[in-house]
Design the sequence.
């Protein structure tokens, strides 16, 4: 008859732990001096060091911190790019992401195309929060996060320099021209990470080994 | 590249970077040191383990001798075995045989793929085991092997606001850098090295730089040590070549020797592990008594001599170490050196009192 009690008095629903989706982009390393190709057709990328976009690193770091605070349960990293984007995803895994999705594509992609592809991933993964960097250091477009929010019909907290998530609500401090603005929104939402949001961690050995597998 | 002696090392390297080359020499002081001085002191630096010493990379020099003769040996030939290599004598001569005015250096290609990893070990033996694994699995792409102890890490973190790369405290840190032509291959090799170190239990934890900025931050942990030490009062600096397995034993012996009589003194050990070169540093309050120096010297030099090491691995002799030179070079060699000095500079006008001790 203990099981009867269980049905009559079900346990209180656990606060549903959330899933975060973090989109990361592979770009020319921030420390590399950019050179224009000889035929002026674009920027030289052959043989040049590529790394995760610094703002995407900050986005991943924020998601990992939320996971450490037990606000987020699972982090899925996604990247759209050539086969080497898998390395960028491995960095995200080494920082603490749980799963990685690679959308293989060679060639340039405009922010709207990226936003549409990310929407397809969102539809499949049903995250509660999407993190992106505020802009990529190669095109400085600063559009993908906003477009994605628009396509999804979700609220957006852009240029985020401080984030609090509680009770299915996000409180975002954003850096705007006039100073800091604080906005509050319900989840799910799109957050774009700004420079002062956090200091991304180093990828540590045990996690790098795990990511390799 | 052929250049004048006054070129700042970093400026020279930046110029070469545009063409895809690099100076085969790198030091923490790159922003202010001049290439002529580097050659005159046979500076070692952070990448000797990969590119060798200036004796190998300097192809030719122009120097002015004591009597005004211009020694013109400024060729750019890789090989030239025609007589005594007089320029070699000038390299590392600390300005006592001639004044270097121009230098011709062989410049290696700048590597496209540079990886930096820092691993943490519990004991110095584990550090040495990790270096052995590195030499086996990374071999031809290794470009730096540097170590530092916990005191050094705490110092740079405190003085320069750097981040401790690992969450927990560890006794020793080993920085390994690779430079190669193919990022995929190099990363695979690096991962092999790290995996092996972890499975053999040589390493407690480690980090790998994910981008250029992180690589720079990790290097700062090592490069900023000398500057940070200066903030701690009086600094007694020793630059010694020792057999690898004896290296840290000296640091520990000095610590034990100074602990009771000079509790305010702090001992630090770091250096170019890949070259067998220890930088032993002791800091003390500015009002430390002369007895402290007496406790350190000649103990450190004699300890080194007993292990048949060098009392000056790369920093040279100057005025400070001339009296101790007999601990690293025999009487016959010193006598021959005096003969060479007399041949080049009979009136003793070039950097007198430096380098050679007076005859007994």
Sequence:
């Amino acid at each position: 008859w203990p099981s009867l009690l269980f049905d009559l008095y079900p346990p209180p629903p656990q606060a549903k732990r959330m899933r975060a989706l973090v989109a990361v982009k592979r770009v020319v390393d921030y420390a590399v001096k950019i050179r224009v190709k000889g035929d002026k057709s674009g920027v030289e990328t052959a043989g040049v060091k590529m790394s995760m976009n610094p703002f995407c690193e900050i986005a991943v770091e924020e998601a990992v911190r939320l996971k450490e605070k037990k606000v987020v349960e699972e982090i899925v990293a996604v990247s759209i790019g050539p086969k080497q984007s898998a390395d960028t995803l491995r960095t995200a895994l080494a920082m603490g992401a749980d799963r990685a999705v690679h959308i293989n594509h060679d060639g340039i992609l405009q922010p709207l195309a990226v936003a549409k592809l990310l929407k397809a991933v969102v539809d499949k993964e049903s995250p509660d929060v999407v993190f992106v960097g505020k802009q990529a250091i190669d095109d400085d477009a600063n559009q993908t996060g906003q477009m994605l929010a628009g396509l999804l019909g979700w609220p957006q907290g852009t240029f985020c320099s401080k984030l609090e998530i509680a009770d299915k609500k996000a409180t975002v401090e954003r850096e705007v021209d006039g100073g800091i603005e604080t906005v509050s929104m319900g989840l799910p939402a799109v957050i774009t990470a700004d420079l002062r949001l956090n200091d991304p961690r180093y990828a540590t050995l045990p996690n790098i080994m795990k990511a390799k597998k | 590249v052929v250049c004048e002696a006054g070129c700042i090392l970093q400026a020279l390297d930046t110029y070469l970077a545009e063409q895809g080359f690099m100076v085969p020499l790198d030091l923490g002081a790159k922003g202010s040191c001049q290439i002529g001085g580097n050659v005159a002191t046979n500076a070692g630096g952070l990448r000797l383990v990969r590119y060798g010493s200036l004796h190998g990379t300097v192809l030719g020099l122009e120097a002015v001798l004591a009597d005004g003769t211009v020694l013109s040996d400024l060729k750019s030939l890789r090989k030239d075995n025609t007589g005594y290599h007089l320029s070699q004598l000038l390299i590392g001569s600390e300005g006592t045989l001639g004044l270097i005015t121009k230098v011709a250096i062989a410049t290696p290609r700048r590597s496209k793929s540079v990886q930096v990893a820092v691993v943490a070990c519990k004991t110095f033996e584990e550090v040495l085991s990790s270096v052995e694994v590195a030499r086996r699995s990374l071999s031809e792409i290794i470009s730096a092997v540097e170590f530092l102890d916990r005191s050094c890490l705490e110092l740079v973190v405190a003085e320069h606001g750097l981040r401790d790369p690992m969450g927990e405290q560890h006794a020793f840190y080993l920085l390994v850098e690779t430079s190669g032509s193919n990022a995929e291959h190099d990363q695979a090799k690096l991962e092999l090295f790290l995996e092996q170190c972890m499975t053999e239990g040589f390493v407690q934890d480690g980090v790998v730089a994910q981008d250029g900025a992180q690589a720079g931050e990790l290097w700062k942990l090592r490069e900023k040590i000398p500057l940070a030490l200066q903030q701690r009062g009086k600094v007694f600096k020793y630059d010694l070549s020792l057999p690898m397995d004896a290296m840290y034993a000296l640091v520990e012996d000095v610590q034990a020797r100074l602990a009771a009589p000079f509790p305010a003194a702090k001992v630090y050990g770091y250096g170019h592990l890949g070259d067998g070169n220890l930088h032993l540093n002791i800091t003390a309050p500015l009002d430390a008594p002369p007895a402290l120096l007496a406790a350190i010297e000649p103990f450190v030099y004699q300890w080194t001599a007993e292990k048949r090491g060098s009392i000056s691995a790369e920093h040279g002799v100057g005025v400070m170490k001339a009296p101790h030179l007999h601990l690293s070079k025999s009487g016959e060699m010193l006598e021959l050196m005096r003969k060479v000095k007399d041949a080049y500079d009979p009136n003793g006008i070039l950097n007198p009192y430096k380098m050679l001790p007076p005859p007994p």
Notes: Residues 209 and 215 of chain B are 5 Å apart (CA to CA). Chain B has a mean pLDDT of 95.
